[in-house]
Amino acid sequence: MDRRSFLKISAVGSTTAALDACGKPEHHLIRFIPEEDLIPGVAVWKPGVCTQCRAGCGIRVRVMQGEAEVTRKSKPGLISMGLAKKIEGNPEHPVNHGKLCAWGQAGLQVTYNPDRIRFPLKRSGQRGSGEYQAISWDDAIAELASHLPVAGSSGSPSPVAFLTQPLRDHRGALIEKFLAALGAPPAIHFEFFEQTVLRRANELSFGHRQLPSFDLANTNYVISFGADFLGTWNSPVSQNHSYGEMRQGRTEQRGKFVQVEPHMSQTGANADEWVYAKPGTEGWLALGLAHVMISERLRPAQAAGNAGALIEGWSEGLPDYTPEKVERITGVESGRIQRLARGSAAHSPAVAVIGGAPLAHTNGFSNALAVNALNALLGSVEKPGGIFFTPRPPMPSLSTSRNSASVRTLCEGILKGSPAVETLLVFNANPVFASPPAWRVQEALAKVPFIASFGSFVDETSVLSDLILPDHSYLESWVDNIPESGTTEAVVSLASPAMLPLHHTRPMPDVLLDVAHRLGGDMARAVPWKTYAGVLQAAFEELRSHPGSVTAKTDDDFWTAVQTKGGWWSNEAKGSPAMRELNRPPSPTKIVEPAFDGAASEYPFFFLPYASQQFSDGTHANLPWMQEMPDVISTAMWGTWVEINPQTASRLRIQKGDLIEVASQHGKLQAPALLTPGIAPDAVAMPVGQGHEQYGRYASHRGANPLKILAPQTEPETGALAWAATRVKITRLGKKGELILYAGSEREWPSQFQHR
Amino acid sequence: MKRQWGMVIDLDRCTGCEACVVACHAENNLATVGRDGAARGRTMHWMRVERYWEGEFPEVRLRFQPVLCQQCGDAPCESVCPVYATYHNPEGLNAQVYNRCIGTRYCGNACPYNARVFNFFNPVWDKPLDLQLNPDVSVRSVGIMEKCTFCIQRIKQVEIRSQESKQPIADGEIQPACVQSCPANAMVFGDLDDPKSKVSQLARSNRATRLLREVGAQPNVIYLRSVS
Fold it and tell me: Is A231 on the interface with B (CB under 8 A)?
């Protein structure tokens, strides 16, 4: 029936009905076309593991039969195959309890991204030109094998370096075995928002070199120092889940939440009380709170144990951190310090959290130690409602003992010519995009004679490679993951491929195994497995004798059962593993002043880059769903912006959307201004993630990259980049920038939504 | 059995993470319109998180509120449609018959919640992004109005299964994509006519309120006020 004849019938029906049924014509009319005839398709839900961030959530993938254009034996064609149609959380998984974040939901667009590399590529043009020609997998693997010299007999290491995203799985262990057999140095792990400072501080304070987990569901009071734990930091889905329980999961108690930060984050927006402290002074505030608790005898100083002993003056009651003194340094009123201290002491169990910018100052390590000591004083360590450390599963195959270098030292070495790097292997790490210019990453990589990349996309780093061996997407691969945090149980997630590969790609670990067998001899003996699935199956045999979520009589049954379940988790009593021995006796630390690059007179603003809710560190900028998801605070889409306090903007005659230049001593960029009351008048903030030069059609040449004006400031204890330690100046350029906002009005919160 | 589908959104749990927004895109084949379309206000979100600033630095607060079609009991969008493309289904949903819609956009104008979006263009998915499309949901074409359906395809699926197995639908068995994904469990979906369902228990909370009550559209989405 075409529309015209349909409308004719409708008109007749409606008239008749009106005559018959007195005023309810629509009931008759609707009979002609009821709501859409929905016949749901047949779907299979397969367990999976999310790799969109490091949290390691368990997922379920909805797979349905469909027709896809695929590449087989280098030839495109149309075949009918199972296709992933939706990703949801695995309800049984101890980290995410069936829930998933926006990044996890957008995982389909990684697999189906039109910019994925579809077959192995060999460089045909100038390096960096992006000109490649297709080659066969045989040739690609032979080419890679020919560039992997084994260590010399004189003891000189193999001149091979492996640069990878941090891997908490057996791929990481396999890479280490591979490199050890070559006689090459251990792999270098790179991600921009690294957590080295907090891990190191947790090792000294609590004996665990790892990120913490929080039992928020049983907490009555949370004080968070800069941690975007409901947005981008640590294990966001797990933390959102327990946050919801903290607020409304208990009938008699609603947990209170205080956020301390220089720039309002999505997490800070949810706080009952939002406290501004000057950037880099969070440690003083934490010790100011501790001072009040000790001096008012709300908590005994010795309750803090080892974590307290690390702070100079702790046993004397922190005489240098009186509320008045702390007020002068942090800008937080002394009365408020006392109130927060009494509040958190009175509402036990209370817990303190630190993450993000406070750790990314030159004094980030001492800020972390101060907050750890506060936690210990609050009595929250490994107590219900407090801070925990996720135990490691009993899998000896995962242990690695070698300490690896950083990207910065790698590049320094390459530029100096020592140690020699003749072959660089890159896996999903993009330091050319995500590093300060002073590290000279691009210049250093240009000097490496041979670079091979395993990534699925051409980005700023992989475009420099001579050979690209594209990986499967995570929905097409065997995936395992050991969550570092987000649960109090030991967990190994596991998934077999949810669908067949779309393109002519191969999983990175399988390529390494292929190469090792081609090299033969010791290399082949060091990694005897044929495929990565074989690596995993052997590793999981170690687990069967331990009590956990899966029991089976034989190894084969166990292997099938863990795949069905989506992994293995211990059902042992909840709690942290035993403290590990410290490799250095703790000596008391004093909180040092944060140092900033750029004189305040010339560069008057603190520059605060932050992990974007849309793109994290830029990894998700090639997903159209994330580009078009409005940032929840600015509501901006498809671009970047600079957040400026309205008072500052009015002083500098800057209006919303004006293009401004942000300049540090190390570079400058242009972006539109966004006036927002959630930032201090002496600071500007920018989300990280846009400004790609080379990352597919959706991300390239869009917005600005704030990391390219960062100073190479470091945190001295760990050598980590202090990415919040740069000062900038801003200039209005006299024209409008491109600012696409989803929301119109900003201040019409209907008072009826306030519960009093 | 008569049912009245409804949803409760607890603003004290919602953290503004926007998992619901992307889950909705994935489930319902929402098109992305790109930079130029977004700049013209033509994005196709069925679900959005509104945010409101209060106060000035440093005594500043920010509040979030997810907004979707409120599935009104007395819906302003229904009475204005000249071709009965938007109508009330027996289970209380405001349903939209896409192949009836002629694109007058009267419903969009009448909706007090700005919950309806219009297809200014035929949607485009760069291949192979078309493979992400959910076969249970029709793809809308240019000139059609669309909006949140409470994931009617998921409701139907459970209803069909329940009819076949003769098992009643359990409370919580049906979850729209946004509810399923919500990490903080801020959203609950269910039958408001069943006094024992979780959604109707929460709807009786003393924190319960509705968006723009004064309009009198009798929404079936109930908000629980944030406490602080």
Answer: yes
Q: Domain boundaries in chain A?
A: 156-192+400-569, 196-388, 605-741
Amino acid sitting at position A559: W
pLDDT at A335: 97
Nearest-angstrom CA–CA distance, A543 and A589? 41
| One CATH from 3.50.30.30, 3.40.50.740, 1.10.3810.10, 3.30.565.10 for A156-192+400-569 | 3.40.50.740
Interface pTM, i.e. ipTM? 0.97
The CATH architecture that domain A605-741 belongs to is Beta Barrel (2.40)
Q: A740 - beta bridge partners? A: A637
CB contact under 8 A, B132 and A41: no
Amino acid making up residue A1: M
Structural tokens at position B108: 């969009």
Scanning every residue of chain B, which has its alpha carbon at the shortest distance from the alpha carbon of A84? B132
Strand-by-strand arrangement of the A44-49 sheet: A44-49, A58-72, A75-89
pLDDT in tens, A721-749: 999 999 999 999 999 999 999 986 454 44
Measured distance CA(A423)–CA(A428) in Å, rounded? 16
Quote the domain boundaries for residue B89: 5-224
How close is the nearest chain B Cα to the Cα of A447, in Å? 36
- Chain B residues close to A643, C-beta within 8 Å: none
Q: What does the buried/exposed string (b/e) look like for A377-386 if buried means 16 or more CB atoms within 10 Å of the residue's CB? A: bbbbbbeebb
Q: Which of A677, A740, A743 sits opposite B56 (nearest CB)?
A: A677
Question: Contact A68/B177, CB-based, under 8 Å?
Answer: no
Backbone phi and psi for residue A111, each to the nearest 5 degrees, phi listed first? -65, -45
Those residues with Cβ within 8 angstroms of residue B220's Cβ, 6 or more apart along the chain or in another chain? B4, B5, B6, B7, B70, B71, B72, B73, B92, B192
Is the Cβ pair A678, B53 closer than 8 Å?
yes
**Does A90 have pLDDT greater than 80?**
yes
Asked if B98 is an interface residue toward chain A (Cβ–Cβ < 8 A), one would say: yes
The three-state secondary structure class of B101 is: coil
Write the CB contacts of B199 (distance below 8 Å, at least 6 apart in sequence). Answer: B6, B7, B8, B171, B188, B189, B190, B191, B192, B222
**Closest residue to B21, CB basis, from A102, A633, A752:** A102
Q: Which residue spans within A11-165 are E strands per DSSP?
A: 44-49, 58-72, 75-89, 121-123, 132-134, 160-164
Which residue in this structure is represented by tokens 């027709």? A67
Pair A629, B22: CB distance under 8 Å: yes
pLDDT in tens, A301-354: 999 999 999 999 999 999 999 999 999 999 999 999 999 999 999 999 999 999
Q: How confident is the model at residue A72 (pLDDT cuts 50, 70, 90)?
A: confident
Q: What is the 3-state secondary structure (H, E, C) of A653-688?
A: CCCCCEEEEEEECCEEEEEEEEECCCECCCEEEEEE
| CA-derived radius of gyration, chain A | 28
Tokens of A601: 């007179």
Give the pLDDT score at A10: 45
Q: Strands A160-164, A423-427: parallel, antiparallel or unpaired by DSSP?
A: parallel
For the domain that residue B216 is a member of, what is the CATH number? Answer: 3.30.70.20
Q: Identify which of A690, A623, A506 has the alpha carbon closest to the alpha carbon of residue A114.
A: A623
* Mean pLDDT of the region B135-151: 94
Contact A733, A668 (CB under 8 A): no
Q: What Rg, from alpha-carbon coordinates, does chain B have?
A: 18
Q: CATH number of A196-388: 3.40.228.10, 2.20.28.120, 2.40.50.140, 1.20.120.1630?
A: 3.40.228.10
Token pair for residue B58? Answer: 């440093």
Total domains in chain B come to: 1
* Residue whose pair of structure tokens reads 């250093």 in the numeric block: A444
